[in-house]
User: Fold Anaphase-promoting complex subunit 4 WD40 domain-containing protein from Pygocentrus nattereri.
Amino acid sequence: LRMHERVLSASPNWYCSRCSDVNRRGVLGFGAKSTVYLVKVTAASAAVLGELSGHTERVSGFAFCQHDGQESVCATSSDDRSVKIWDIEQKAVLAEHTAHQSTITSIHWSPVEKGLVVSGDEKGIVVCFWHGRNDTHSFFPEPRTIFCLACSPHNENHVAVGYKDGMIALIDISKKGEVIHRLRGHDEEIHALAWCPEPKEEDLYSRPEENTADASNGLAEVGGGYLASGSRDQTLRIWSTARGKGVMTLKLPFLKRRGAGVDPGVKERLWLTVHWPKGRPSQLVSSCFGGELVIWDLTKSGKQKWTLLGSSADGQNHSRIVFNMSSVCVGDRELLISTSMDREIKCWDLASLDCCWTLPTLGGFVYSLSFSPVGTGFLALGVGDNMIRVWNTLSIHNLYDTKTYWQNIKSKVTALAWHPAKEGSLAFGTDDGKVGIYEAYSNKPPQSSSTYHRRTVYSLDWGPPIPPLSFGGSGDKPTYSLYSCGGEGVIYQHDPWKLSAEASNIDKLIRDTNNIKHNLSPHTDFSWKPDGKVLAIGNEDGSIEVLGAPGLKLLCTIQQHHKIINTLRWHHQHSDQPELHCLLASGSSNAVVYIHDLRSAIENPSESPILVTEAFRSLSGHTNKITSLAWSPHHDARLVTVSYDGTAQVWDVLKEEPVCNYRGHSGRLLCVQWSPVDPDLVWTGGDDFTVQEWAVSKQEHARPPKSKRRVELEKKKAPQKKTKKKKKAAGKGGLKTEENESPMGEEEKGGSGADEAQSEDEGEDEERESTTPLSDVFCESDNCNWFVLLFLELSLKKRKPRSMLPLSTSMDHRPKEELQQDCLTLAAVRHAHENYGSSQQQYTSCLGLFTDREALCRMFREEGKNHLEAGHYDSVMYLRLWNGDLVGALHVATEKGELTDHLLSLAPMAGYQVWARTVEAYVKQLCLQEQFLKAASHLVSIHKIYEAISLLKAHQFYREAIALAKARLQPDDPALKDLYVSWAAVLEKDGHYTTAAKCYLAADCNFDAAKVIAKKGDVMSLKTAANLANLAGESNLSHSLSLRCAKELMLSQDWLAAQDILRIQDTLLGHRLVFCVSELLTQRLSVTGVVSWSSASSHAWSKPTEEDFLSAIQRVWQSEFGLATADLDQIKAFHQQLRAIENPSATASMPIKQLLSHVALDVALSVVSQLLGDWASAVEEFLRAVTRGFEVGHFSLMAEMCQLLLPQGETLSFMCSLALSHSLTRSLSRSLIFVQMLSHTSSSTAAEAIVKSEGFWKVLLSEPHASLQATKRVIQDIQSRVSSLVQQHSRPQEPQPSLGTQPQTHSTDLDDELNSSEGPGDPHNKQRY
Assistant:
């Protein structure tokens, strides 16, 4: 038996591949929230038949059995991981299974096997359920998320499965889910699959580039069948399941009606569903971008293979994306049913492609219903999906003729009110506090009030203007004002002619008129009497105030309810019984409806307000809070009320009897309206997302069900369900709804979305609502907001803070008799002081809060003692602080190490000395806690700067210590320099040389700064240190550092940089001359190959030329370094600088670069000595430069030096004189003297020729000659040691010829032979050899 007449149901669930289906009898089923609604479909209209309730979470799939005789059987899947088989006639479950362990994403009833239901989940598991024998088989064909599946209508074992990654698998369930074909081509998730109704794969028309099969593109007479798929990649594909290949690709058109079209890269708004109608193997229906439906002719040639449905008239198409489609033949017409995100279900005629009818659905709580007093039969619905719907309930051709308003509405619509006289003017209020007015018969956006409520708008009503809006002439003010009540407890009066003006708070007028000084109780509802003379206001404390217009003088106050007033309504004024005109019905959260007769208070007002405490009638029967009520406009004293108990109750008020009870809703009821034209019809809306029209006379129940709450409590207490409830609470954080919460607060406290799983990509769904526990309200969706759960969890875990007065609190938990005796004792103490003395001490703990200060102080002492024993020192401190004992509180905190910034801030109230001691104690406490910076800051507060600096320094906070010292001490304070030096030593030890140098500079230790920078030893550091020392006046240090840097640069052959660094000091000019010679020498030797490296940089004047080497040196010195050959004083100075340069002897291990620097110094000294005329020194340095290569065994260097220094040779006499004057060049002079001896027996010309000959120098400088000279030196050393030993043994004997002269006599040194008196022909010497 159907209890309702018409129903606007909840919206079909979004983002499901198959959540609606239609059977052969024309019954449409679709999943909405956790319910399945059944709708009878004809070509003319639709009618809701009923619903299937049994799932605990969102329904994710629905499919009918399409076999003969099984039309009333259907299958559903849900996010509760169950699959159920239903009989829609009995509305009962026939079978079910819970084989899935993950969320089920798709379901289909096999068109071939009538007992087979196939489902898939997000983990990739496919479950086959034969419900007749209650048998299940699970397969795992691919480890991918399943988005959709479809059973083949041609082969009972074939199932096509579409995955999230765009792949399609054709599996055989008879072979344990073996994959027959993997169809690849889509790039993104598969939204829908549809099989061609014909098994033959007929020829289809496609462009050559789309045809991936053979040229014929067909498999006539071959089984398998075509498969169509729609994907988020904006394409449809037709597949040959026999070949496992795609045969056609269709791209969605960008229709002109969408303006500029849709960006192909934006795919969030697309859901591409496909449907292959029966009997139409060449036609395919698909959705498009913005809610359009197109039918494709697969055999048609050309680019446009599609035809748009609903193109004959505007407004036929969906306005949002379409999710599901199904078709059915009703009579001789083939109908297509579509569901969309726009919350409309449309029926299409596939022959004409026009829309037959539209069934609106609702996506949120129905908060408000309001019939227009002018436009008869127009019912406005305020819904939680952020939309207003106006339903023409009297329409004959379309029983569900509705219009939707959504512009400028960003929140749930919680209140509605039609203008009493102006047609089409509808006021609305929203959850975000907005108040506006829609003109329902125009397309203009609504006007919005500039004044917002801070919380949800609970109620709206039109009434007469009151001050200040009532001032002025009749033409200057509106006939009606708009009044709104919000959750913050304020009622505003809005000017409908000027909503941009600020609304007025009527509380000001109420206080002024009635001379009220105290704050008024927050208002929760109000109602104007239809004649506009009296305003009733319901308050949060349960009181009702009745005020007379226009001054709002308080006529009476009703103190009947004890909880928040949820609804108020005056009886209509067209009754034949005038005594009924002043009946006021009120409902609150205590489930009882009270009727008050206020005729005497209104018609005969007294000077002072009347207090009403007795009701005219009391209507009891509901088992939960009353949310709304309405008087019948067709009867006298007939009232309908709705409640959280889920029922609507019609009452005969005068008889205090129930008339009927409506139980058609599956959730709490929030609003009610009596039909203005039919006395038997009532409209109700609730949190089950439905609006239902029902007839009073057709209801079988007379009163609400009894003890519903008690039954629920008993179920909760049942042992077998207690554990389950605990688990649920643990997972979702269950909380009970507060008894006194407002009727508009459920959804506000209700959590995440009307169906978050429906619209997770859109973000436009409304708040999720449910029925009783707040946890269910929060977590009805599987995608419950995590932060809501976290908030609930934290709320449950939040511990109550420790009481400051635990003894006093414990005294309040004594037996009732003792507590009542305390009241008597307190009264006696307050009014009979003489009898209190003896019992004063006895009642200190329990009555200290209520007697005098002395008793309170004693109570504080007892509480403090208790806290000390328990170790709650902070509580002790606060008690002493409250008692005014600041010193005592500080003392306790100091002793226990519990000082805080707050206590320290209070210390100055006790005097400077107390404050200073407290700061010092706090500093010690902070040091123990290693909060040294904070401790130092507190020392500064009592002007102990040096102590603060020492504290920071002792704990290595040098930077902070220096900052503090610089800010608070004199610049010449020794402590500052000590800080710098100490920090520099630490930094230097840690290798932070640059920062250490800064510290030394700040401390005026310039020498140390330069030294520490130079420690690193690299060129950059040495250069910086040299410049720093020069700037600081440390000339000697700058001299040495510059020279070190230059030498490093010379080794890296960076001659330009070396000369630049040497320019810093004038005393380094001599070194510059040496570096000049070294650069010239290196460049000359690089040409001959002796120097193999390249220079990093060099001067232009160092390039090799044909000029003589020595002449080139003098020229460069004069031009680049300002050397004047005529200025002997300058040359002498240069000579002294060069002589001061260290010039050690060469060793065999000396690097070639260092050897060349020594050679350059010898050459420089020789040139300067020559300029001074000191030929002896010049020759000596000249010969040293030539022989350095010989000393280290680098004979090629020596040969090249001879070529550089003796390019054309010299006269024999000059060379001999040179040889005789230098003892270090014995080998060279020996050769020259040998040439001189030859000159006695031959002409001097021949000797000179020998010397100048190339062979002479080659023999002289050859390796064998060098080896011979080395051997002779070894023999000479041995002879010297033997002579010394012989002398030591011959001293005691007579003098004999000493053998000590033998080494000299037989010396092979030609210089010694020339000076010996014996001559070289001594026979003894010959004998020794």
Observations:
- Residues 5 and 694 are 5 Å apart (CA to CA).
- Residues 1263-1290 form the longest helix (28 residues).
- The chain has a mean pLDDT of 80.
- The two ends are 149 Å apart (CA to CA).
